[in-house]
Amino acid sequence: MTAASRSPKDFFRPLALGAPAPLREIPARPSRAIHFFDPSNPKMAAKIPDMVGTVDVLLGNLEDAVKADNKEAARNGLVEIAQGTDFGPTQLWTRINALDSPWVLDDLTTLVPAIGDKLDVIMVPKVQGAEDIHYVDRLLAQLEAKAGLDKPILVHAILETARGVANVEEICGASPRMQGLSLGPADLAADRRMKTTRVGGGHPGYLVREDPPRVGGVANLEASRATYQQDLWHYTIARMVDACAMHGIYAYYGPFGDISDTTACEDQFRNAFLLGCVGTWSLHPKQIAIANKVFSPSVEDVAHARRVVAAMGDGTGAVMLDGKMEDDASLKQCLVMVELAEQLAAVDPELKKQYDAIGADSDEQEA
Ligand code: GLV
Ligand code: MG
């Protein structure tokens, strides 16, 4: 802590008189798919009430992908949709415009009084450092106090600038409002001067090639050799996951722009899931199904995790299961899986049926 920092004792104090007290823990609410919609598009907006209950998070997007001429219509459209819809178990998020844009002040001063009681999370794009979070934190506290809200609105930052990546830990720890981070591969690629032109996903040029075969000790450089595409986003996602875990908040993949390539989309989402992310964005209804599948532990994994939990008794020592050693640390991994399955089963009746069909001492093996 530097001499100028706030005392840790003050970290959970409201930043404005009358603002709701910050949460001490960020609730682990299912958020496998954050489905983006443009509230200025009447066709899209009309579908939102029917999507309640079919997706974990609905996000009214005000930033990129909304034309400058439609910014006001998007903001007002979101207010109208939120006021007229009962979201039940589905969370309502929004992505506001960038902090240096001409629209963001009106975004916040309109949305918080009008629909602050319905908004769970505000996604802030192009975050560069803790100072951006501090700005939003104080402004939200003032607006919440003025609107008489009794529950704080949480903040989610998009990691999409090189400086943001360099400051990722301080961004996650900048406010008790911080709920999580998403990868913003399109803006991040531009900011880093990466030589890609895509929204998320891999690139065929980013690869490793196997060594040439050797004949009589001499490398045959003419022989054909297998290549393996590498993941451009591995480093950033891994950093993001560690920063989020260290601050008790959640990491998400982001947009996958090639809507037609559902296979590569599923692969990217699964890499993120395996590395520790809890969800991703959906830019098209068909990506919701992919996200829900990938970010829900498989029945086989849950069956295995429950077997380990049952076999480990008080959780100490080691046991052998199917020829593999299980101990305190593998038990902890299995508990992550079991707890996630329980949270998801609570909101997803179809998944609950599948998980309930597994007995605690099931003999199902890992796939
Ligand atoms: C998302 O906002 C991105 O820039 O990828
Ligand atoms: Mg972006």
UniProtKB/TrEMBL annotation:
InterPro entries tied to this protein: Aldolase/citrate-lyase_domain, Citrate_lyase_beta/mcl1/mcl2, Pyrv/PenolPyrv_kinase-like_dom, Pyrv_kinase-like_dom_sf
The answer on whether this UniProt entry bears the keyword Transit peptide reads: no
Give the GO molecular function terms.
lyase activity
- Respond yes or no to whether keyword Repressor is given for this record: no
Q: Which residues form the HpcH/HpaI aldolase/citrate lyase domain?
A: 34-198
Q: Which co-factors does it depend on?
A: Mg(2+)
State the UniProt keywords alphabetically: Lyase, Magnesium, Metal-binding
The name of this protein is CoA ester lyase
